[in-house]
Amino acid sequence: MLETLLFAGLGCILGTFTGLVPGIHTNTLAIIIVGLAPNLTKFNSISIAALLMSMGVVHTFLDFIPSILLGVPEGESALSVLPGHSLLIEGRGIEAIRLTAFGSFSALLITLILFLPALKIMEAVYPLVQGNILWILMAVVILSVLSEKRIVLATIIFLVSGFFGYFTLEASGSLIFPALSGMFGISTMLISLKSQAFPPEQEFWKGRIKKEDVFSSFLGAFAGILVSILPGIGAAQATYIVQNVRNTEREDFLISVSGVNTANIIFTLAVMHTVGKMRSGLVIAIKDIFPGIGLGDIFVLLGVILFSGIIAYFLQVKIGEFVARRLGKISGESYRKLTLTVILFVVILVLMMTGFRGFVVLIIGTVIGFFPPKLGVRRAQCMGFFLIPVLLFYSKL
């Protein structure tokens, strides 16, 4: 047990690193750990699995800090950029950090409570859902577009983003990071620079949890469950679904979005156990290292998840508040320089990771990202980047 806790603690450190450094994902480290596994035979397999699971949980909390405060998103947190950044500009960056921390932790608790009933329900529901995924996604897309005030423009943004995604995802090599950094990150930062919107001193937030916040937590947990059940659906697509369930306030939306990936981490274990499907890179790595994992071992990992979630909550709040306060104390000119430095950092990171092709994708994504706020359309329609390829795949086109 002590060994498992020590490995879980190491996972918390690694998850903090991957969460705070844009472009570094848990799947990258998971591949390295799987490669090192033959040299770690003196340790229990459950301890290495605990390291992987702990890393994944902490990552789902901490990756909202660069997304909200710096505008550098990953796929899981892309849609949090605009509402989170707008709260930062209003001096409410600490509130945005605390809301996402609450959303992640409450979704974690909800999914832990629902885990046992879900094992039974999933066996019955999974075959039904699997055969109707195309119609489920089409219904979500249609309802989303119809909920816009400018339906034609929303449709155009969705289709343009979708075919951009289709050709990008068809290319060899991973170009998701430059595409999302352009559509949701750099475009937001450039608009902020143009409007001269700089963050004021950040207010300390002591808000109360309302019933609407609890509902938003359940919404995020439900979307996380969808990710684990529906084949071909990732966190970004589930986030899109959350965005369109109801016309939420920014605060409620941040709570929902933050819970999606945390809930998904837990329910990928349930899917692995009930239907034998692996829905995340971390679970694939765990199964590779620990092929004989049973229900008892999964319950040990659930304890690790709770342990890691508590640590992640406090890490996100403390680190996020520290960074937000520092941002609020710098001058407008200094913030402008910081933003330009972050943009330059993203460009260099894209060139290092994906080369010139990635740079071209970054530019195209940035251009697309400019249009939704200018045309009065929700930037969630840019999630066509993922949804159009999935719809084409399931329609056999």
Describe the protein's architecture and organization.
The chain has helices at residues 2-20, 26-36, 45-62, 64-70, 81-89, 93-130, 133-146, 151-170, 176-194, 211-229, 235-245, 250-275, 281-289, 295-329, 332-375, 384-394. The chain is mainly α. The protein has one domain. Helix 3 packs parallel to helix 14 (295-329), helix 6 (93-130) crosses helix 10 and helix 7 (133-146) runs antiparallel to helix 16 (384-394). It starts with a helix and ends with a helix.
Q: What oligomeric state do the depicted chains represent?
A: single chain
Note the overall shape: globular
Report the average pLDDT across residues.
79
User: Can you count the helices?
Assistant: 16
How much β-strand is present in the residues?
under 5%
Low-confidence stretches: none
- Portion of residues within helices: over 70%
| Strand elements, count | 0
Radius of gyration: 20 Å
Please tell me the total number of domains: 1
Summing up helix and strand content along with how strands pair, one would put the structural category as: mainly alpha
Q: How are helices and strands ordered from N to C?
A: HHHHHHHHHHHHHHHH
- Main beta sheet strand tally, sense and closure: none
Q: What separation lies between the terminal Cα atoms? A: 51 Å
List the helices and strands and how they pair.
Blueprint (H helix, E strand, L loop, with lengths): L1 H19 L5 H11 L8 H18 L1 H7 L10 H9 L3 H38 L2 H14 L4 H20 L5 H19 L16 H19 L5 H11 L4 H26 L5 H9 L5 H35 L2 H44 L8 H11 L3
Helix pairs in contact: 1-3, 1-14, 2-13, 3-12, 3-13, 3-14, 4-5, 4-6, 5-6, 6-10, 6-12, 6-14, 7-11, 7-16, 8-15, 8-16, 9-15, 10-11, 10-12, 11-12
